[in-house]
Amino acid sequence: MTAEPSRPAGRMRASDADREAVVEQLREAAAEGRIDLCELDERLGQALTAKTHAELAPLTEDLGPAVFGSEEPLTLKGGIHGAQRTGRWKVPPRVVAYGGMGGVRLDFTQAECRLREVEVEVDAQMAGVVLVLPAGWKADTDALDLGFGGLKDKTSGERLPGTPVLRVTGSCGAGGVVIRHANLRERRKQRKESSR
Hints:
This protein has 196 residues and is α/β, with parallel strands linked by helices. The protein has helices at 16-31, 37-49, 53-60, 184-194, and strands at 74-77, 83-85, 94-98, 104-107, 117-123, 129-133, 138-140, 144-145, 151-153, 165-171, 177-181.
């Protein structure tokens, strides 16, 4: 089997997360007064219809380093002891979670997220993956393979305006995927920490 020739980075197809990252950078630049509203409208239109990284790059090259394609995904591996991301953390455009034997828990309730869409790729394996969402966030699981463990979505499914959508893909494996809101114990703990 022969390896495919590598494709120049600029010809890589842009994802929704790539376009959203550029849109966010443009909005921040307008808020800081680095581009005016007419230029913002023009660049936003081009960003939302861009198909490749080469089309996105010129829209932000005078504003600082490109934000798409450069940020590594957040990868959590449950291994034997498990892994989690909780408390205050910045949500990247892409998250990858491998459940392993110990499981993975991603708690978004106190996370900083400026994106409208986040790609969450799961491989639940034996112990599964748990996603804890704030009220008003929505998870799109249409592309998720239910595997043996299946999916338990305990959220309302209703999205509040301005909140992100998590596009959950991958496999539920044997351990399954659970999507829920914070339980009473978790909410009490968060209130106690925020009052310090």
